[in-house]
Design goal:
The protein has 378 residues and is α/β, with parallel strands linked by helices. The chain has eleven helices and 13 strands. A seven-stranded mixed beta sheet has the order 2-8-7-6-5-3-4, sandwiched between helices. β3, α4 and β4 form a beta-alpha-beta unit.
Length: 378
């Protein structure tokens, strides 16, 4: 197999730590049972392992109640639950053009179902601190919720969560955060940032495998959350409705056991290595590419921050550039990245852009190799 330079970490982290791999193998070798569905040793052991990951996840994101960590199929599943909860208020929702379709489409569905009005604000991608002030200005008595990404999957821009969250808390407004691109790359403390619901994946910055995620509910959030999936919960089997208690109310059916344990192992790795150190590595590699492409004639470099670099080659469709890089053994992602409003605001065109997204294992030499391939292509 040819050497691969993996630069698609915003889609899923490309290199898993050894302890994550071992955790996945352990689920097949030692835990061949359904967690929380039987009383025998293997099932009870699996359930205990799941609870330990709940505790780790709660601790990482700054809440005290492990039962407020609800495991989901992915971030999209978690966001659907969270956004539907916001829709119960049938009021205006404030969001941004930076959002992924995992936020946009549930919001559009609320407009159709309940007539909820969504206000999409456009930030200054190079100075998102001002965006917090804009959100605050838009908040009025008709606002029921604010739904925002913590970090754009297109530009890597971070939003000022604490500033926005505190105003939401003061005014009794639900604050929902899509943490798909931020979790594991940046510290997110739900209590300090007054976040009511945070949605995260197992397989990106938390370094686990695909197929899992979590909806994390803040300690102070007491509103009833309605499930989007209903079925077996392991308790109250004669009841016609899902249980009222968390996490069982929102965890219908068999849990994604291997992704959950892999996420727990990823959290262990992040704590040991240090999120700041790992983020420094990925950001340093991305910054090297920004420097090189920014000084290359024929390349359009868009607003990009952190571990993400978004660009196009003049006169070339984004997918053609990605295909060329793939032939060189470089994995990137082209197109609209499921964030059409963001690309429209950036002016990337109908074909979107080429996104190189870096992980903890990437180095500046990866950027230099990509740049050489681009130069040969021009």
């Amino acid at each position: 197999m040819k050497k691969i330079v993996y630069l698609d970490n915003a889609a899923t982290s490309g290199k898993k730590p050894d302890n994550v791999k071992k955790a996945v193998m352990k689920t097949m070798e030692n835990y061949c049972a359904n967690p929380g569905r039987s009383g025998h040793f293997l099932s009870v052991s699996a359930q205990k392992a799941v609870y330990e990951v709940r505790e780790k996840t709660a601790g990482m994101f700054g809440i005290s109640k492990a039962e407020n960590v609800i495991f989901t199929q992915n971030t999209t599943h978690a966001l659907n639950i969270a956004v539907n909860t916001a829709g119960q208020r049938k009021k205006t929702v404030i969001s941004s053009v930076m959002e992924h379709n995992s936020v946009l489409r549930p919001l559009y569905a609320l407009e159709e179902k309940y007539g909820v009005k969504t206000v999409f604000l456009t930030p200054d991608f190079n100075n998102t601190d001002k965006f917090g002030e804009e959100v605050i200005r838009k908040i009025d008595r008709d606002c029921g919720a604010v739904v925002l990404t913590a970090c754009s999957n297109v530009t890597g821009s971070l939003l000022p969560l604490k500033k926005i969250g505190r105003v939401c808390r003061e005014k009794g407004i639900i604050f929902i955060v899509d943490g798909a691109q931020a979790a594991g790359h940046y510290g997110i403390n739900m209590t300090e940032n007054c976040i009511d619901m945070l949605c995260v994946p197992s397989h990106k910055g938390l370094l686990g495998i695909c197929g899992g995620g979590a909806l994390i509910v803040g300690d102070n959030f007491t509103e009833k959350i309605n499930p989007v999936l209903m079925g077996g919960s392991g308790i109250y089997s004669v009841k016609k409705q899902m249980p009222d208690s968390l996490p069982e109310r929102l965890e219908a059916g068999t849990l994604p056991f291997a992704p959950i344990l892999s996420m727990g192992a990823g959290i262990d790795f992040l704590k040991k290595a240090g999120i700041e150190e790992l983020n420094f590595r990925s950001t340093r590699a991305a910054q090297r590419l920004r420097e090189l492409l920014g000084n290359t004639k024929g390349v359009t470099l868009y607003s990009c921050h952190g571990n993400i670099v978004l660009f196009n080659i003049e006169g070339k469709e984004s997918f053609k550039t990605a295909e060329m890089l793939d032939r060189c053994g470089i994995s990137v992602r082209s197109g609209l990245h499921c964030a059409p409003l963001c690309h429209k605001a950036l002016g990337t065109g109908k074909d979107g852009g080429v996104r190189a997204s870096f992980g903890w294992f990437n180095t500046p030499s990866d950027s230099e190799y990509l740049w050489k391939c681009i130069r040969n292509y021009l």
